[in-house]
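## Example pair
The file below holds two records. Each record gives the amino-acid sequence first, followed by its structure token line.
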Amino acid sequence: MRLNQPRIGPLDDAEMNDEQRAMLGERFQQGPVLNIFRTLAKAPRAFKAFMWWGGYMLSRHNSLPEREREMIILRTGFNWKSGYEWAQHVRIGKDCGISDAEIERIKAGPEAPGWTALEAAMLRATDELTNDSFISDATWTDLAELTEKQRMDLVMTVGQYTQVSMMLNSFGVQLDDGLKLDPDLRG
């Protein structure tokens, strides 16, 4: 975590106006409302747009298989040193079939032993995008097993989670109850 306290604090229940309650209402029915949503709800129009686009990223409309999508999200969050993003998506990634050993390998990157050629290419593409905002010709060629739509979704997923990481880091969104900060993402 870059900050040990929020710069923009999450709304508590008593602070919410009617619009914010309505926006977050469905989430309250599903359980605790995450700090990311309580923070972003302070900008209602942005929150609504964010939720629409973020919903696409985590839906079946994103043509990447769930497991690979989560690998990309985790690598993006790790590259941007987003402790919150990492912690949330470790849990989601495990639900999508990523093992503890693979989670550690995601931190090590595309050159770590054990990845398939395509998995390594997807992680390398993520690294290139988070370093230079561009996938090299060589890596693009290595992604040939992916459809054109999957390649587009890979780039858009890294872009979305780059934005999310920047917001989480800069706003100082703190971990939700039950999440654990990865020691490699302290400070």
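Second record, same layout:
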Amino acid sequence: MTMSNCNEFCPVARANDVLGGKWTTLIIRDLLPGKKRYSELQRSLVGISPRMLAQRLAKLEGAGLIVKTIYPTVPPKTEYELSNIGRKAENIIAAMAEFGATLGEG
């Protein structure tokens, strides 16, 4: 695979399409330990707007990276968790953490 010849079929381009948005990798990071409710994600992602969180969760669900479960309670309880495909992003998040740690080293 040549990186200079990347088109819509390029695996890097496909991954970037799903993971490239602001907040996306942080949402995945927060779901790595397990299921989270919307409000838990909102609290952990300081600065994200409710609209942006909803958009990112919908995009990740549409891409098959997360599973949304709605429980028929009053009020409704909604939980998000990584799918099997979403769990494959764990190595990417770990690599980002390792790389990010080196950025402060100068």
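Notes on the second record: The mean pLDDT is 90. Helices lie at 11-19, 24-31, 38-44, 50-62, 84-87, 90-103.
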